[in-house]
Amino acid sequence: MADPAATTPSRLSRLKTWARGIKRDVVTVYFAARDPQAPLGVRILAWAVAAYALSPIDLIPDFIPVLGYLDDLLIVPLGLWLVMRLMPDEVLANARIKADALLAKPRSLFAAVCFVLIWIFLGFYLARRWLGAGFIP
What we know:
mainly alpha, single chain
């Protein structure tokens, strides 16, 4: 009988690889939707799939047990598969190149923290200004 602890890292690494592939495919579909060489119907479908995948709003909210995450595990991969199946190969190849270039760029945690702090400061400033001016009864 196989040791479950021995198989866990391989399952986890496969899951991480699958998640990275989904992320790459979402960005690829986004760039493909913007390509004027793609057929209009497929572009509209690609926009819908990319918007759903990147949107914080779900068809079924995530707090609903099982179903909340099941829609993300089914709708997004099926939508990506369908768009990639219908999209012309040259459009998909160009979109993959753009997606890989975007995902290869380094990300700065410091810059992200700065932007969050700016938004928080701006929110407090506007709330204080509105409350002080009597806009909220």
